[in-house]
Amino acid sequence: MSDWSVQLSAFLDEAAGFILGASHVVALAGAGLSVESGIPPFRGPGGLWTKYGEPSNLSYREFLDDPGKWWETRFRNEDKPGDPTYEMKLAVDEAEPNPGHYALVEMEDLGLLQCVVTQNVDNLHREAGTKS
Fold it and tell me: What residue ranges do the domains of the chain occupy?
């Protein structure tokens, strides 16, 4: 067994010990969990902002000035290939929960996890069966 494998095994044992000894466990899930399901992250390799550039602060100001117009623009662009909104919509429409989503459901079913908090809008936690 490599040094890396030994270290990983020790880390996982320690993490399991923390979970088993805790009275209340909350999972904080972000975009990284859904990458395996085919949903691109915003940052990093293959990220939407890496590919298309980060949204400007002007977009935020436009939203504050006229939220209705801002949303209208987003929805109009969601049908245009080459637009990040379009790419994200396609990915979310085709995505299915992955083993990470199901692992959280299993932890919840075993009483090891009391709550899943996510900023993801892909609904994959619910599709996997998360109750919290």
Answer: 23-39+96-132, 53-94
